[in-house]
């Protein structure tokens, strides 16, 4: 009996400590999504072919080592965590999942997986953690925490926490790639509608597991990535992909507005399409000089061969928008993170994260 009481007392102390950490604006942050937020989950998937745990990734990360981030350094999830006052980056779920001590998850964790999509079929055979599976993993964490620390206390904890989601780009990339079977099954409108409807169900599942504050990051101007430019004979942006990225983003905004009117949620949405396009159209305003080519890779636009150890990488990384054929440099990711946290309504809708966490 005494042991159980002391265990409960210690658990409540931990919960209080996480709720009141110096400088930390939220008690926890939980991250879901794809390679734009992956902090190393795919490193722990033996059969995954979508990894970034090799050079030249991480060349500018503290220690100069590849961590599994698809970047030369930190990604936008890292910068957002810093803005929120977290002393250390979120850990990848799979790095601590075997632990029987659920308190390891109390301050949050990243479920994001490079290559993941909204749809289970997206990169299904590439060894990634789909959005549905990420929510299952979160559900397991939720259940453990509620069991150990009590439902009432944990609901308060989750309600104050931040739930960040960046997903959908890989679904769109797979649909529009050359020879895609998906184009035989769905029109672009049908496919985008399917993505949005599926994401709506997924967000509601996360809501039912305690989430009340969401930050959702829309699809960028995918058609302007080096990979898509490389496939375009003109070398310009692939406008069809861009158009449907916009339609997908409008769908996200619609479901978030609907959820806010139906449920007790608040949210911040980043129009990353418009922000990335602003980088490209006004690079000097952001300190960029190269808007088309990847920093790391081989071939035209450094996009014929991805950022493998055999590839070359540029010295002026802070002047490039793109690190590899799809992912932003650390410099670009920093601006994304700053905008998510403190951006105006030019890119954030209806509020930014600083305003969201204050509610």
UniProtKB/TrEMBL annotation:
<dbReference type="InterPro" id="IPR051058">
    <property type="entry name" value="GDSL_Est/Lipase"/>
</dbReference>
<keyword id="KW-0732">Signal</keyword>
<dbReference type="InterPro" id="IPR001087">
    <property type="entry name" value="GDSL"/>
</dbReference>
<dbReference type="GO" id="GO:0016042">
    <property type="term" value="P:lipid catabolic process"/>
</dbReference>
<keyword id="KW-0443">Lipid metabolism</keyword>
<comment type="similarity">
    <text>Belongs to the 'GDSL' lipolytic enzyme family.</text>
</comment>
<dbReference type="InterPro" id="IPR036514">
    <property type="entry name" value="SGNH_hydro_sf"/>
</dbReference>
<dbReference type="Pfam" id="PF00657">
    <property type="entry name" value="Lipase_GDSL"/>
</dbReference>
<protein>
    <recommendedName>
        <fullName>GDSL esterase/lipase At5g55050-like</fullName>
    </recommendedName>
</protein>
<keyword id="KW-0378">Hydrolase</keyword>
<dbReference type="InterPro" id="IPR035669">
    <property type="entry name" value="SGNH_plant_lipase-like"/>
</dbReference>
<feature type="signal peptide">
    <location>
        <begin position="1"/>
        <end position="23"/>
    </location>
</feature>
<keyword id="KW-0442">Lipid degradation</keyword>
<dbReference type="GO" id="GO:0016788">
    <property type="term" value="F:hydrolase activity, acting on ester bonds"/>
</dbReference>
């Amino acid at each position: 009996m005494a042991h159980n009481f002391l265990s409960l007392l210690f658990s409540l102390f931990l919960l209080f400590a996480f709720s009141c950490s110096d400088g930390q604006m939220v008690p926890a942050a939980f991250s879901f999504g794809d390679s734009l937020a992956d902090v190393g989950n795919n490193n722990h998937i033996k059969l995954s072919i979508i990894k970034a745990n090799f050079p030249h990734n991480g060349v500018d990360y503290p220690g100069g080592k590849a961590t599994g981030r698809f970047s030369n350094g930190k990604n936008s999830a890292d910068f957002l965590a810093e803005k929120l006052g977290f002393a250390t980056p979120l850990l990848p779920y799979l790095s601590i999942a075997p632990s029987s001590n659920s308190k390891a998850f109390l301050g949050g964790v990243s479920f994001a997986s490079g290559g993941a999509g909204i749809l289970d079929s997206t990169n299904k055979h590439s060894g990634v953690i789909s959005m549905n599976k990420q929510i299952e993993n979160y559900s397991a964490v939720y259940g453990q925490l509620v069991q150990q620390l009590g439902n009432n206390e944990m609901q308060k904890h989750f309600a104050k926490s931040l739930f960040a989601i960046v997903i959908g780009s890989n679904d769109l990339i797979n649909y529009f790639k050359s020879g895609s079977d998906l184009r035989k099954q769905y029109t672009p409108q049908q496919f985008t509608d399917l993505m949005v409807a599926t994401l709506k169900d997924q967000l509601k599942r996360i809501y039912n597991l305690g989430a009340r504050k969401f930050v959702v990051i829309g699809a960028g101007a995918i058609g302007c990535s080096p990979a898509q430019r490389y496939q375009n004979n003109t070398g310009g942006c692939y406008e069809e992909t861009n158009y449907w990225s916009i339609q997908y983003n409008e769908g996200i905004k619609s479901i978030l507005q609907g959820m806010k009117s139906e449920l007790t949620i608040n949210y911040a949405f980043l129009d990353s399409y418009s922000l990335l396009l602003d980088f490209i159209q006004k690079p000097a305003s952001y300190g960029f000089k190269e808007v088309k080519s990847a920093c790391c890779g081989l071939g035209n636009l450094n996009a014929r061969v991805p950022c493998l150890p055999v590839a070359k990488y540029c010295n002026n990384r802070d002047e490039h928008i793109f690190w590899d054929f799809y992912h932003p440099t650390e410099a670009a990711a920093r601006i994304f993170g700053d905008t998510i946290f403190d951006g105006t309504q030019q890119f954030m809708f209806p509020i930014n994260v600083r305003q969201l966490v204050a509610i």
